[in-house]
Amino acid sequence: MAWVGTHELVAAVSAAGGLGTIGSGHAEPSWLREQIRQTRELTGNPFAVNLMVISPFLKENLKIVIEERVPVVTFGAGNPGSYVPMLKEAGIKVIPVVSSVALAIRLDRQGVDAIIAEGMESGGHIGDTATFPLVPQVVDAVKVPVIAAGGIADGRGLVAALALGAQAIQMGTRFVCSTECIAHINYKEQIVGARDRSTSVTGTTTGHPVRCLTNKFSRQFSALEKSGAKTEELEDLGKGRMFTGVISGNTEEGSLMAGQVSGLINGIKPVKAIIEDIMEQAVGILKAINGAGCREVAR
What we know:
Blueprint: H1 7-15, E1 21-23, H2 29-42, E2 48-52, H3 58-67, E3 72-76, H4 84-89, E4 93-98, H5 101-109, E5 115-118, E6 124-125, H6 131-141, E7 146-149, H7 155-163, E8 168-170, H8 173-176, H9 185-192, E9 199-202, E10 210-213, H10 216-226, H11 231-238, H12 241-247, H13 271-298
Parallel strand pairs: 1-2, 2-3, 3-4, 4-5, 5-7, 7-8
Antiparallel strand pairs: 6-10, 9-10
């Protein structure tokens, strides 16, 4: 959610009963501090900050979340184990994103408060295991609560996650298509118009695979990657592309990070309506399942 996980969206999610998360990406420390303070001006509810382990500003941003007493920090794109003690000592809850059982076990032992098990269906940086097989294996392997992520956009996904043993869900792509998200309308409309096979993965040779909507840029990147280009050349091609796509609205030349769940998203709504719709659908499904189960037992 880099560039689009800003205070407007974060505050709206937290105000509606979720845990809004500032997506710091590779942003500079001054930007992050301002986002934290602007979020607090809009809501008194808890919120989180996501830090990327591969960010060149990671250490500076760690200092800021501690100074600003952010309630929750999530981590992505790497192993944050060495940073857990300093955050815990500051009274901050730590919830890393993992794409493997091995990393989940290691971080559980290091004292994290919960774990986000994210399948490869998700948008942005991904692992190589899908949500359905990953979540229950992580649930069985750790003692802390597990949050399911990747391929979830509605009440059906929430119920499925609960059935797999997760205690919560994380969504990104669905919230891009909210009225509060500052993402360019062109980007949002690309997601709304997407189908089940509208995304592709690039960057596997760099060690940081990324799922995006397929467009001119992703095809160019993929072709260069297949030709055997060096990581430096690929990284140069990708510089600034996310801003070009999600903020400037150039949907052909920019990088449009989005999950496979894009094909399920058919409209742009306020955050509150999105969450209410998900909860209403989930409750209805659970009631129907419960009713069916009772009838079966009665037979």
